[in-house]
Amino acid sequence: MTFVARRRIATRAIVLDRSLESLPIFRLSDSAEDTAISFSPESGGRWRVLPSPGDRLPGTFDQDVYIELLHRYHEAGAPEDGVISFTLHAFLRSIGRRVDGRTYEQLRSALTRLERTTLESSGVYVAAKEAQPLEGRFTILSSVSIARRRLAEREQFTLFPVLAASEPGDARVTIGPVIRSNIAAGHTVTLSATHYMSLTNPVARRLYRLLEVAREEGMVTWRVPLASLAEQLPLTQRYPSHLQRVLQPAHEMLLAAGLLRDASFRQLNRDWLVDYVLASRAA
DNA sequence: GGTGAGGATGATGAATACAG
DNA sequence: CTGTATTCATCATCCTCACC
Fold it and tell me: For strand B, is any atom closer than 7 Å to the CB of A172?
């Protein structure tokens, strides 16, 4: 393979922390209640996502921002300090959003939310280099700084020379060390950026990542109780019919994109299951 | 040209309510 | 518990205005 060819493929890849992708983080629905996400896997332990006080849980916009950040981290050659810099303008363009006052504001709040939202693992999150699953808390981003024109210009802020010196709209964020460590250890899933962007439904985007975890762990078919899947995504709907209503369009989108061979709902006695037939590695 | 706040309005789709 | 109708928060899109 030539350097050029390898480079082109690399820029289309999104490399994510496999442990993180197996856990629920982003609220996919717009339910008014904004309590913490809580997930208790079969294997025991508990996982929680705690919003920062006064803020909401990360949502679908934050999900897209998170993915683009990791996309850029990979493109930048996964720098050891985890720092990536970009302009808000370029970032919005690359996630296919319009660039106006609204989206600037959304992006800024999404970045700070990714820094402030607490992820709590009680023996659930697997850190590749550790023998035991993690006991403790961490965040997706460990630092976020965004230079703002108006702040940078004010005289009284000259005591922050770094801020004053940087260009307006420049963001500088640090991917958290826990996530970086798993990526460095190769405990990852790899997505196609093209495919990811082509999925217009946020549930489909989330499901794509979760299915990649299953595939990375060697599964060809994956049978999962509907209720467990709902917890793991997460989806808040309680009834099987409601869950199916949300999942069905996502399944259709993934099938059409060739990211999934088959998806079907089955009822065995009282229990609803979902059977996935995963796509082959090629694509 | 790039930032940045914010008003107005329509589109979207999941939550919710309600009937079966 | 499920299927259908309605409601409503969020998002997208358009704009103006101000500033560099």
Answer: no
